[in-house]
Design goal:
The chain is an alpha+beta fold. The protein is built from 13 helices and five strands. A five-stranded mixed β-sheet has the order 1-2-3-5-4, with helices on one face. Strand 4 and strand 5 form a beta hairpin. The longest helix is centred in the middle third of the chain and has 77 residues. Keywords: ATP-binding, Kinase, Membrane, Nucleotide-binding, Phosphoprotein, Transferase, Transmembrane, Transmembrane helix, Two-component regulatory system. Its EC number is 2.7.13.3. It comes from Streptomyces olivaceiscleroticus. GO terms for molecular function: kinase activity.
């Protein structure tokens, strides 16, 4: 056999050999070992993550330095944690020294050191309860370790003396009122682990104080944690309500401004239309105009048309969907002071006795001033009907050469227990303020001493008031 044939003969068995199937007996132990190793690795990783999370929760306090109940509005509640901590420290410190020395047979120095370490950190629990827990928990572990290595125990509770349990439960109250839920669970688990360890060291001693410590600490953490979360939820709801109220006021203001803009559009659009017509008809009305003047009039008319188109486009943006659903843009002209008499008559028919006083010197007013004065009186009378039905009301509009004074005063309602509305949308006073601010005036509103209400607005005039023929009020 040649060397080449010999190499081929030796290679053939290796090529014909097939790997064992997954179900064959030789492969099962290998797969099982790999799965077990992978499961152990996952369990180790999960245990490490849990321990890391536990350590993070136990070392990361919530709002350190902020006193318990420090945000309370009542002063005595803010001082209450300090008083409680001082009282319990002053009582538990000497009691712990006496109990450890007399009942457990420890020497005076060791008893004093353990008592100080187990009680004085309660003063720290007012502002830093998690740090205080570390100090007291370590002191309690040291005390239990000292008691566990003692030769004999003369019968007192083991591993936690009564004063230690009281101090620890008071600390649980401070923790529950401050720390988050995961931290409380971690503290409770650490407490339970310590109880089991020391109970297993001397199973024949003690009377089950480790069970008492574990159960009571868990109950206190549960109750105080629930109280803390309830308080936080209430504060969050109050904050959201404040934000919602601010947003509602802002939305009301914007809606009122849009409504005022829509109303003033009619006034300005009328003047722009007049300018357009006058500019277009000037070359036909005025004979002998130079070509330059005629071209200037045409430019004025074109500019007026563009301005009017821009105003209508702006009005379309300001108009709300609700007003569109209610029938689209209003076609009626905007009211003025000439319609105050009709407004007062309608209010009288609604059951409100109203006395209207219009000055005889009331002349031609700018349309914006007349519209604003009418709307102010209209909203004031509507508020009287809603909130003080039947109250006697006086309305006066007094002009002078620099401005217009609008005054609406109503007395107390004869039926104060039966108002038609106790709450409103807030548009009334907001609209009054915006109208007055638009014209650069002032507004004074507020209740009267006898239970009535007063609305006084001062609307300045850009030009002196022009006199017209006096008419009876």
């Amino acid at each position: 056999m040649t060397p080449r044939r010999a190499r081929a003969a030796y290679a053939e068995p290796a090529m014909s050999t097939s790997p064992p199937s997954p179900g064959s007996p030789g492969s099962a132990p290998t797969g099982s070992r790999a799965e077990r190793a992978d499961g152990r690795a996952r369990a180790v990783r999960a245990a490490r993550q849990a321990l890391r999370a536990l350590a993070t929760d136990l070392t990361t306090p919530t709002r350190p330095g902020e006193p318990l109940l420090g945000t309370s509005a009542r002063r005595w509640l803010r001082w209450l944690p300090y008083v409680v901590a001082c009282v319990f420290t002053a009582v538990l410190l000497p009691v712990s020294i006496l109990v450890l020395a007399n009942n457990y047979g420890l020497n005076g120095g060791l008893s004093g050191a353990l008592a100080v370490a187990q009680t004085v950190p309660l003063l720290l629990a007012v502002s830093r309860p998690l740090h205080a827990w570390w100090a007291i928990f370590a002191a309690d572990l040291a005390g239990a370790l000292v008691l566990s290595v003692s030769a004999t125990l003369p019968g007192p509770p083991y591993p936690w003396p009564p004063q230690t349990i009281i101090s620890y439960l008071l600390l649980m109250v401070a923790l529950g009122l401050r720390e988050r839920r995961r931290t409380l669970v971690a503290v409770w688990l650490a407490t339970g682990a310590a109880c089991l360890v020391f109970a297993s060291l001397r199973p024949g001693d003690g009377d089950g104080t480790w069970v008492l410590m574990f159960v009571l600490s868990g109950a206190i953490l549960l109750v105080t944690g629930a109280l803390r979360e309830r308080g936080e939820a209430r504060r969050e709801l109050a904050a959201q309500a404040t934000i919602s109220e601010a947003e509602r006021a802002r939305r009301t203001l914007l809606e009122e401004r849009a409504r005022i803009a829509r109303e003033l559009h009619d006034v300005v659009a009328h003047h722009m239309s007049v300018i357009t017509v006058q500019a277009d008809s000037a070359p036909y009305r005025l004979q002998g105009l130079p070509p330059e003047a005629a071209e200037e009039f045409g430019t004025i008319a074109a500019t007026a048309r563009e301005s009017l188109a821009e105003m209508r486009r702006l009005l379309g943006v300001l108009r709300s969907e609700e007003s569109e659903r209610q029938g689209g843009p209003e076609k009626a002209p905007q009211p003025g002071l000439d319609q105050l008499t009709r407004l007062v008559e309608g209010t009288v028919r609604a059951g409100v006795p109203v006395e209207l006083t219009l000055s005889r010197a009331l002349g031609e007013l700018p349309p914006a001033v007349g519209l604003s004065a009418y709307r102010i009186v209209q909203e004031a009378l509507a508020n009287v009907v809603r909130h003080a039905p039947g109250a006697r009301t006086q309305v006066s509009v007094t002009p002078d050469r620099t401005g217009l004074t609008v005054l609406v005063v109503n007395g107390p309602s004869p039926r104060p227990a039966e108002p038609l509305e106790t709450t409103g949308t807030g548009h009334g006073l907001v609209g009054m303020r915006e109208r007055v601010r638009l014209l650069g005036g002032t507004l004074d509103t507020g209740p009267l001493a006898d239970g009535g209400y007063r609305v006084a607005a001062r609307l300045p005039l850009t030009e002196p008031l022009t006199e017209k023929d006096p008419t009876p009020a």
